[in-house]
Amino acid sequence: MTTTPAAEPVATESADADSLGTGALPSSMDKSRTALVRRARTINKVLAQTYPDAECELDFTNPLELLVATILSAQSTDKRVNAVTPVLFARYPNAAAYAGADRAELEALITPTGFFRAKSDTLLKLGAALIERFDGEVPAKLEDLVTLPGVGRKTANVVLGNAFGIPGITVDTHFGRLARRFGWTTSTDPVKVEPEVAALFPRRDWTQMSQNLIWHGRRRCHARNPACGACPVARWCPSFGEGETNPVKAEKLVREPRG
Fold it and tell me: What GO annotations for molecular function exist for this entry (predicted)?
């Protein structure tokens, strides 16, 4: 678990023109950029090998359920959300049900997720908006999703990538933290982080790459005291040493997420 593949090549400043497919030797800046891209893709590949089951950890069976679950996950955990959604989804199976929901009943059902008054208000408005503008269906376009109550780019990309199979990057707190530690961005603004990281990967990889980083952030690369000594991508991480580097001690920091 703590070892990393030795066969994966690491980008270097000596990359030749043919390997880059450019037909001409790149400038120093181009070489540096190429090294960054190669390192980023290597990290993602190793994380994919480490977490072969990495996927959205919210339970859902359709786009509306995922949209609602993602809204509820704000300032909460996936575990808490998953505990309430079976009853919630059975009680409110469609947009019309949310639009016509009794506020007190809805609040009672989602109380464990926190901020239940604000979230219930959002769900009531969401149901109405879906009925009024999208015939009760969750739209499959980013520009439409972000017009809905309670839906920003992060939530929209979660739904697009995991419910519709449309590539998107989910910049949550874990993703942003790891992207900065890996040197993929220096920004703390999710709106800036998204395109900067997107430029490092093929579009088809965006959704799974997001899940890989989120899983790694929840399990090893914690906000406080990351398990550097038990990290599968330590050899490529410019931030190695921010946390515990002793392998035995670091392994004790590895945990299953609360959700």
Answer: 4 iron, 4 sulfur cluster binding; class I DNA-(apurinic or apyrimidinic site) endonuclease activity; DNA binding; DNA N-glycosylase activity; metal ion binding
The CATH code for residues 63-163 is 1.10.340.30
Helix (H) or strand (E) holding 157, with range, is: helix 153-163
CATH of 29-53+170-251, one of 1.10.1670.10, 1.20.1250.20, 1.20.210.10, 1.10.1200.10: 1.10.1670.10
Burial of 257 per CB tally in 10 Å (0-12, 13-18, 19+):
middle
Q: Is 56 annotated as a binding residue?
A: no
Q: What is the pTM of this model?
A: 0.84
- Helix (H/G/I), strand (E/B), else coil: 138: coil
Is 237 a known ligand-binding residue? yes
pLDDT in tens, 102-158: 999 999 999 999 999 999 999 999 999 999 999 999 999 999 999 999 999 999 999
Domain edges within the chain: 29-53+170-251, 63-163
Residue identified by tokens 């090294």 is 35
**What gap in Å lies between CA 101 and CA 94, rounded to an integer?**
11
Residues forming the active site: 154, 172
| CA angle (258 as vertex; 252, 259 as ends), nearest 5 | 135
228 is in an annotated binding site: yes
Instruction: Give dist(CA 37, CA 253) in Å, integer.
Output: 29
